[in-house]
Amino acid sequence: PVAAGSGIPQIKCFLNGVKIPNVVRFQTLVTKVVGVIASVSGGLAVGKEGPMIHSGSVLAAGISQGRSISLNINTRFFEHFRNDREKRDFVCAGAAAGVSAAFGAPVGGVLFSLEEAASFWNQALTWRIFFCSILSSYTLNFFMGIYHHHPGDLAYPGLINFGKFDGSYEGFELPIFLLMAVIGGLLGAAFNAINYRITVFRLTYLKARYFKVLEVVFVAAVSATIAFVLMYWNSECKPLGQDPNVKLQFFCNDGEYNTMAVLFFTPPEESVKMTVLNGLFIPSLLIGAAWGRVVGNCVNLLWPADEWAQDLSKYALIGAAAQLGGTVRMTISLTVILIEATGNITYSLPLMAVLLLAKWVGDYFNHGIYDMHIHLNKVPILPWEPPALSTNIQAREVMGSPVVTLRTVPLVSDICSVLSDPRNCHSGYPVTDTDGKFR
């Protein structure tokens, strides 16, 4: 069960100091790899970037410890790293490596770990994670070149390819982009609200295993049926481009492809948090790019003679950023990821403004999707800031009296007495010396 979903909430909790059973075990990695292949190839509206982040974290945790409980392997390698602090740092680097491999964004991977995952950070950890991210992207690049029969050609930095993006924008388009950010924040909040209610329904009524299997089969069948009907009903054929490896011909003639056929591979709010391996980034980007292109078409209809209104790709990019930002509520790391993935730094200002505004609008209604699922799973994660009402509360106002302590060298009878007392259920006790002073 711990392998279900994207894995990002679980890794976030693990790095926060919460012990989640089996979250970085080898059997979880195997389940993750096999499951995401089956989910994506089965036609579900899911992505693979979340499972890649989880998989990178599991690999980092296993390699750093030099042993595996699942495989019953215990070597003498890396014994120095067998403590919680070092393991946490390696898991943080593994998460960054997963982002780097998915999007070809090494800097974005570092910022993702800093902004979204890690609860502890230091200067030395920055360059270590950065080196890990660069190496991850280079390794994927090398093997992707071999896969595409171009060994040595390092032109495949990430699994997700945004293509060549050379467009620019005018300064007076910024209000349009900000309006799209508001739309993205509203749609992201609506997406999270729908997903929250569906998840509550699952947790309440779909507890049996066969119900979970039937749900996946039902969603896959309905998604494929709707996509096939739409392709057949609205078959728009266009000439093939220069890439012969991407063919979605369906009902079109030779040399043409069906633009509606993308639906065959793509309802994501239902797929997220199903008992399958899935990611949220790609479905959200596709949703945002779709309605962003609609906005671009509207702009083109209003100003058909202006050259700046002819480029629809920039509106698709801004829409994708607004939708994803309104859903996951990430800002800095997501900006850098999109800049690195598109290779166009020109859009750094509008992307940052759009992501910030989409986050503010979405936060007005509910939490981000990852924090929402952490709450649903009832994981006691420690937030960055304490609740507002606790600012002026002193320790003596919440602690019990007399204070229950343990000596530096306690008697077994004292330990048993403390632990057997039903009033002492917090499982945390100050350690004092023989004089009662805190050490």
UniProtKB/TrEMBL annotation:
Transmembrane regions: 93-114, 126-147, 176-198, 210-233, 280-303, 345-362
Organism expressing this protein natively: Ciona savignyi
Bilayer topology: Multi-pass membrane protein
Listed GO CC annotations: lysosomal membrane
Keyword tags: CBS domain, Membrane, Repeat, Transmembrane, Transmembrane helix
GO molecular function: chloride transmembrane transporter activity
Tree of life domain: Eukaryota
Location(s), subcellular: Membrane
Keyword Transmembrane listed: yes
Record-linked Gene3D superfamilies: Clc chloride channel (1.10.3080.10)
Protein's UniProt name: Chloride channel protein
